[in-house]
Design goal:
Elements: H1 2-29, H2 37-56, H3 59-69, H4 74-98, H5 104-129, H6 143-176, H7 181-211, H8 217-255
């Protein structure tokens, strides 16, 4: 199931990135229809990281990368760090949309936190790599794998919760103003909620193992990719729709 789900996510991310690049060049010729420069960069960064992360989650691609790298788990590590940067980029994007002026302290805090989480993942990866086990719930019995997963999923849940709450707040505000971008923001909110649910279910399996009461691994292996795919597609699709809706509104205003 991982192949089709994450392959589709990679294609959607690539298409969204192409749309954003096109808008970037056309808006320069149209007196900068988008004003939020920080969010533009964060949006593009999130799409690039999403493409890389989901592409490496496709089993055939992951196997090829691991063979080149000479490590059985390198694709897991790169994919997860890309997911961490993806989440942080969405946090920065939403913060920039929420505030009228760049929120430098909040942005710097989240960038710094990315470095901390990435460093922890690399350290825990090196420990887990010594026993040559996949960094997945399949090998959750190994303490190093559990530690790695808790670090990654903990960050994913916290970032997803923030994005969900902030995007829901912005969606309510723009809906009251009758702006069409509310639809895209609502879809993005649902995507962030799916991401939180993914982290809870996958992380719950890890914690349940500690207590000796896990549910069948087949259920986890089915639910997690589905929720992750829904999260990614709704997030990048919803945010791209919000950008396109805002552009359409501004163009309509310019033509009247």
């Amino acid at each position: 199931m991982d192949g089709p789900v994450f392959g589709l996510c990679a294609v959607v991310a690539l298409i969204s990135a192409a749309i954003l690049v096109y808008l970037r060049f056309t808006q320069e010729r149209r007196s900068s229809l988008l004003t939020y420069r920080v969010s533009q960069r964060a949006h593009f960064t999130s799409l690039v990281c999403c493409f890389v992360g989901t592409l490496l989650a496709v089993p055939d691609v992951a196997d090829a990368v691991d063979r080149v790298a000479g490590s059985d788990d390198m694709s897991f590590l790169i994919s997860d760090i890309a997911a961490v940067i993806f989440c942080a980029s969405l946090q920065i994007l939403i913060i920039d949309w929420e505030y009228n002026a760049p929120h430098h302290a909040g942005i710097a805090l989240r960038i710094g936190f990315v470095f901390v989480v990435a460093a922890l993942l690399i350290l825990e990866f090196r420990r887990a790599d010594r026993v040559h086990l996949d960094l997945s719930t399949t090998y959750v019995r190994n303490f190093e794998v559990r530690t790695y997963l808790v670090t990654y999923l903990g960050f994913f849940a916290a970032a997803g919760l923030e994005v969900a709450m902030r995007s829901a707040k912005i969606a309510r505000a723009v809906r009251r103003q009758g702006r069409p971008s509310a639809t895209g923001l609502s879809i993005a909110t649902a995507g962030a909620a799916f991401g939180v649910l993914y982290a809870i279910i996958r992380g719950g399996y890890v914690l349940a193992f500690e207590g000796g009461h896990t549910w069948p691994l087949a259920i986890e292996n089915t639910l997690s990719p589905a929720l992750a795919g829904l999260s990614v597609i709704c997030l990048i699709g919803g945010l791209t729709l919000a950008v396109l809706s805002s552009l359409g509104l501004k163009r309509a205003g310019r033509s009247t």
